[in-house]
## 1
Amino acid sequence: MKKEQILVIGGGLVLLLVIYFLGTTVPAKKEAAATTPAVAQSFDIQAVIKGATAKLPERQQTYVSGLSEAVVRGDVKEQQIRTYRQLAQFWSDSAKAFIPFAYYTSQAAKLENSEKSLTFAAQLLLDNLRGVDQPDIKTWLAGESKELFEKAIVLNPKSDSLQIGLGSTYIFGAPADNPQELMKGIQQILAVSRKDSTNLYAQKMLGIGGIISGQYDKAVERLEKVAIATPHDLEVLLMLAEGYERLGDKAKAISWYEHAAEHVENAALKTELNKRIQQLR
């Protein structure tokens, strides 16, 4: 994942490390084919795909163009779904470009309109939304993920996981100048938490939302519950340590950083964590 993709939640080093080292499901990039064109003012997905296609070798351009034309010609939904999936697989496996991959995965899911496919696509976009800081791409990913979660909720309105996923798209997709969107997401997840206080996914996302919104006291309270129940969740451990550091509680911050370090295999992350611990002492 390139550094320009990193989402620095709240500006903390450790939160940067969470995204950078734990990674996302973005396919690894190739220099020629996978670099998504920068978007100046508005995000045009077709222009992005066209630009990425133009950088492919001629043989691959022909392949992609043929599939794209097949989508237009296809008059049977199953044929269109199959073609969208072929395009998604190409951009994932051969071109290693996430945005076209995400688009075609989303389109296939919308056409299939099953809870499973919609949820998979929605979660895929949500997971990668956290690794993007370009406002227009971020807005597009959040909008697509919201739409997919909403369609899945129509099929299964009682699913707490879907409700939390939808709320999370607001939390991670909220523009810096629109905190109301972030709070909308928190309220969405709070509705699930009030109904089931034992829902760890809800507590985790509320905790992360609290870190982002600066509500550190409540955030660390929620994240501690999750950390105790799921002690191997490195993201939670790092977020919790970050929360205590922001509260000025160095002792607890160090303690949770040390807990996190016990579960880190990445040598670079372990080095950064040890540096952080020494700085706090």
Note: Residues 1-16, 18-26, 28-40 have pLDDT under 50 and may be disordered.
## 2
Amino acid sequence: MLRFQMVGLAAGLVLSTAIATAADKPSDPQIAHIAYTAGDLDIKAAKLALEKSKSETVRAFASDMVRDHQAVNDKALALVKKLGVTPEDNDTSKALVTQAETKHGELVKLSGAAFDKAYVANEVAYHKTVNEALKTTLIPSSGNAELKSLLETGLKIFEGHLQHAEMLARASH
């Protein structure tokens, strides 16, 4: 179990480093891209869990991740369209994609309980880091009230995801 906690911790450290190395105050187009990318990557991880996991609880959690992150991303796309903003790729969103590709490569090799534990550990680390980035960087840096409101709503949802993932992690001990 310690190995899975260390994998999750390493994923969180890489993600937090990626977010911390972005410009001190990202622009709204960069924030929109970071937030959308983070949600999209979690959707992809959840879809992998739906393919690989046999656990009803892990599959239910993964289904929630797809539903909730897709809903937030759909709202984000509608907002950027309404505002006439083009999301801007940046070092943070690129680092998120690179990290997710590495994690996907690790998870795809696992099966059964080993996959479930690694997936859940990654979800705990990922949500801790994304939630912290929303609180400390993305929300405070946003200059647009509607974007800020969407990020705050997303944070409330994602805090629930973190609690759910932590509950699953405790139950798998």
Note: Residues 107 and 115 are 6 Å apart (CA to CA).
